Amino acid sequence: MDSAVQLSERLTLSEVAFLDRLKTHIGVLADLCRSDILIYCPAGIGRAVVAAQARPHSIVPIHTESLLGRPVTPADAPAVFRALEDGRRTVMEAHQGETGPGSSAQRAPIVQDTYPVRAREGGTIIAALAIETNLIERERHHRRSRVFRRALRLFREQVQSGTLRGVEALSPFGEHDGIVYIDSGHHIQYVSGIATSLYRKLGYTASLLRRHFEDLELDDGGPVREAFETGACVEREIHVRDLVWIKKAIPLMPARPWWRAVTRREAARRPEGVLVTISDETEARRQQEEARVKVAMIQEIYHRVKNNLQTIASLLRMQARRAGSDEVRVAIEEGVTRILAVAVIHEFLAHQEASLINIRDVSQRIISMFREGVVDHGKSIRLDLRGPNIYLPTGPATVSALVINELLQNALEHGFEHQEGGSVTVSLRDDGDQVTIAVEDDGIGLPDDFDLEQTSSLGIKIVKTLATGDLRGRFELQGRDKGVAAVVTFPKQQGGK
């Protein structure tokens, strides 16, 4: 949201703070009034700009795009300039776009209710607040209870005067929220149709009007009592029998001239009433709980698969120790590392709810696995990792883990056969729409007659198949002055994978 200081350098620090506070309050006003709210600040002679905008969650907004920073002139917005220059409230009917900076939406009839804004009693006008309502909603509002209309007016005055406390912590109001107004004697004076339906779920079929709120015996009056006692807005999640409600309680202070600052004596007065909104979150909570249980079950499955893979790897290691030839033993041990590479992925999935896996973390885990059980400790071979965090879905992450495993295995097996030491580096690169995995070593390099298409190396064949088939990418082996760089590049978007 634009800063008030940038919009008008003539404002004092206290006026800037007042406007900033007003900006945080207009969202709730938009929801309850079912209107778009705009704040205009002067920006020179015959010019003003939109300094803040709030669109309602409770109804389709009039302005679907951001208007922040849009300039207007007296010809564009006469009501705004009456408020800014003459200090007059103006209510005018027009077509959308005729009373303000315009919109890409259809030009529907609207009513613009515009007020001057002062930060203190007798102070200069620092802004204009415009409440824009579509004509149908305006007519609907006039048919509502006088009690509710008065409550809404009190609420609007508190927002305009910047005296509403705790409103910043309230979540947005929704289209299906019920509304109840309770007076200072804790008697219900207004109940919306949605609120009536919500209480009927609890067996209250008779009218709730003029009933004492605490006589409902629901043990959910805490937010209302707190709002009366503290004079601040309150939001709580309430469990009423088998229902889950989100209840917001907004204290409304007695009417007074909207522009006059609140004295300490007035601030200490009790609210005239409390406006309560009720949102039934029972079904949403049920779905959240089902999703939580499902995630827990999936994580448990991943955990068990990981344990089973590790058990299989342990059994194969035992078999490798009993192998009758080095060739069989090496083949079994290579199979073990492949199984453990897949187990690494399941280990990550077992401890996180997100379906995206950080390939850098996977690479680090595989490198640690190689340091512990694969690298010949009689040789001085260093394993390093470079590159940023790269998050991939489960499918390509699993394939990437197998690719990294095979390339590390191949580098250690063939790159240092006649060397006493060296280094192998796993490098990751994120190019936005594609990912590159490179395993580079400073070993003996490729044979002079090496042919990638004709090689008999099982590890190289596996990587080529995974890179071109599963990852839909490409695989290259690049000989260097010293060593080899094995590079796999693939698109980050893998379709349904």
Could you please describe the fold and organization of this structure?
- This protein folds into four domains: 1-143, 2-Layer Sandwich (Beta-Lactamase), CATH 3.30.450; 144-280, Beta-Lactamase; 282-353; 358-363 and 371-497, Heat Shock Protein 90 (2-Layer Sandwich).
- The longest helix has 40 residues, at 282-321.
- The strands form four sheets. Strands 3-2-1-6-5-4 form a six-stranded antiparallel β-sheet, sandwiched between helices.
- The protein is α+β, with helices and mostly antiparallel strands and 497 residues long.
- Residues 1-8 and 102-106 have low confidence and may be disordered.
- The protein has helices at 4-7, 13-33, 78-86, 135-142, 146-161, 193-200, 222-230, 264-267, 282-321, 326-349, 359-373, 394-414, 458-470; strands spanning 36-42, 48-54, 71-72, 90-95, 109-118, 125-134, 178-183, 188-191, 234-240, 243-252, 273-280, 356-358, 380-386, 391-393, 421-430, 434-441, 474-479, 484-491.
Structural class estimated from helices and strands: alpha+beta
Radius of gyration: 34 Å
Strand content: 15-25%
Number of strands: 18
- N- and C-termini, Cα separation: 39 Å
CATH architecture descriptor text of the largest domain: 2-Layer Sandwich
Q: What is the approximate shape?
A: elongated
The overall pLDDT average reads 83
Total helices: the number is 13
Q: Class of the largest domain in CATH? A: Alpha Beta
Question: How is the CATH topology of the largest domain named?
Answer: Beta-Lactamase
Low-confidence stretches: 1-8, 102-106
Count structural domains. 4
